[in-house]
Amino acid sequence: MSSTPTAVIIGAGPGLGMSMAKRFGSEGFRVALLSRSDARHERYLKDLAALGIEATAHTADSTDRARLTSVLAEIARAGDIELAYYGPAATQLPVPLADITEIDAAAARSAFELIWPAVDMVHQVLPAMLERGSGALLFAGGLSSVRPMPMLGQLALSAAALRNYAVTLNAALAERGVYAGTLTIGGLIEHGDIHAMVTADPGHFGAADGHTLDPDRLAATALDMYRTRDRAEEVFDVFTG
């Protein structure tokens, strides 16, 4: 087993996922990328190798519990998982979003498909962290968890649940050597897939100018949260003011 700590990035994409990989990898972590498709894995690994970062890439749909559990176990056998980051995009929702006034119970339940994998991740990696008395759990969530955004419909419900899960874990683990925290994100993350979708069709989505966030800045904040452990949440809101 490697003595190098591992940072697992679940939902690795070209935006925040890769920024997290680069930031923690530059701090001496071995990086394990997880995403639904391996189509971009070769490029990701080349980019990380060029920075001197040791990395592996794994194909796993986070909603496939058996596959997610198997991959996390495989990664743990190669070295201790010191950081587990959960950040799958809302584009993975199985049905379109509807206004909050129009959703039914089935639509609401569909949004929680993004929450159960976060719980599965924690269930898989937390016992070893508690045994060592070391580790961190980080999550990326949406601004609708703290600010009413009716147009996001059922996503607001799951965003609030994920945020509550993260901050409650923070309170539960505070005296046990393991940190938990969440990035609450209100804005388009530059270089990410949603950003690319929006900017490709400004006539439909509107202009992205002034509504974007630098993923490197978010990743730097995540590293600071991991190091200082002085807050459970950091909010990024480009819509304020």
Question: Mind sketching the topology for me?
Answer:
Layout: E1 2-10, H1 16-25, E2 30-35, H2 41-50, E3 55-59, H3 65-78, E4 79-86, H4 105-111, H5 116-132, E5 135-142, H6 154-173, E6 178-186, E7 188-189, H7 193-200, H8 202-205, E8 212-213, H9 215-228, E9 233-237
Parallel strand pairs: 1-2, 1-4, 2-3, 4-5, 5-6, 6-9, 7-8
Helix pairs in contact: 1-9, 3-5, 4-6
Q: Could you describe the 3D structure shown?
A:
By secondary structure, the protein is an alpha/beta fold. It has nine helices and nine strands. It has helices spanning 16-25, 41-50, 65-78, 105-111, 116-132, 154-173, 193-200, 202-205, 215-228; strands spanning 2-10, 30-35, 55-59, 79-86, 135-142, 178-186, 188-189, 212-213, 233-237. It has a seven-stranded parallel β-sheet, sandwiched between helices. Strands 7-8 form a two-stranded parallel sheet. Helix 1 (16-25) crosses helix 9 and helix 3 runs parallel beside helix 5. The chain is globular. The chain starts with a strand and ends with a strand. The mean pLDDT is 88.
Query: Reading side by side through the largest sheet, how are the strands ordered?
Result: 3-2-1-4-5-6-9
Average pLDDT score: 88
Distance between the termini: 50 Å
Shape: globular
Q: How big is the Rg? A: 17 Å
